């Protein structure tokens, strides 16, 4: 599936990712998570559009190739996640997005509370220790070298 915003190509979403998002959305609906949200979610399509729009806004806000590559990539699934999962007992992902979270982890955290509609927990920095996790935050070289 190709993603377009204002007639400009923004990326591509695999059918597998679309199924993951739809399943998580339906699960949130059955658990009643939608009832506490303002504004109330109207449909899967409208929330998916909102998710993609938030991603685009973040990419524009932090416009830099290194940051864009850091944030919008999905970590290479099998190779990168297999070792931490096996040797460090990693079972979750922090600072992820519903668009790039690794589906084999039991939990993931997002910076946006609305992402709970797609299975995310909110605000990884304010939650208590939940076990070992993978984290790939937005960063810039300038921030990394500040003293």
Write up this protein:
The chain has 147 residues and is α/β, with parallel strands linked by helices. It has one domain (2-145). The protein has five helices and six strands; from the N terminus they run ββααααββββα. The protein has helices at residues 15-31, 44-61, 65-72, 77-87, 141-145; strands at residues 2-5, 8-12, 92-94, 107-110, 121-122, 133-135. A four-stranded parallel beta sheet has the order 5-4-3-6, with no helix packed on it. A two-stranded antiparallel sheet has the order 1-2. The chain is globular.
Give a topology summary.
Elements: E1 2-5, E2 8-12, H1 15-31, H2 44-61, H3 65-72, H4 77-87, E3 92-94, E4 107-110, E5 121-122, E6 133-135, H5 141-145
Parallel strand pairs: 3-4, 3-6, 4-5
Antiparallel strand pairs: 1-2
């Amino acid at each position: 599936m190709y993603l377009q915003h204002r007639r400009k190509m923004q990326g591509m979403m695999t059918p597998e990712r679309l199924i993951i998002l739809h399943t998580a959305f339906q699960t949130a609906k059955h658990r009643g998570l939608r009832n506490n949200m303002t504004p109330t979610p109207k449909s899967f399509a409208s929330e998916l559009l909102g998710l993609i729009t938030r991603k685009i806004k973040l990419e524009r806000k932090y416009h830099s190739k290194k940051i864009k590559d850091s944030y919008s990539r999905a970590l290479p699934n099998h190779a990168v996640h297999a070792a931490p999962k096996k040797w460090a007992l990693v079972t979750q992902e922090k600072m992820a997005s519903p668009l790039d979270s690794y589906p084999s982890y039991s939990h993931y955290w997002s910076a946006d509370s609305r992402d709970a509609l797609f299975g995310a927990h909110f605000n990884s920095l304010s939650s208590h220790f939940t076990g070992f996790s993978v984290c790939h935050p937005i960063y810039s070289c300038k921030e990394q070298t500040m003293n």
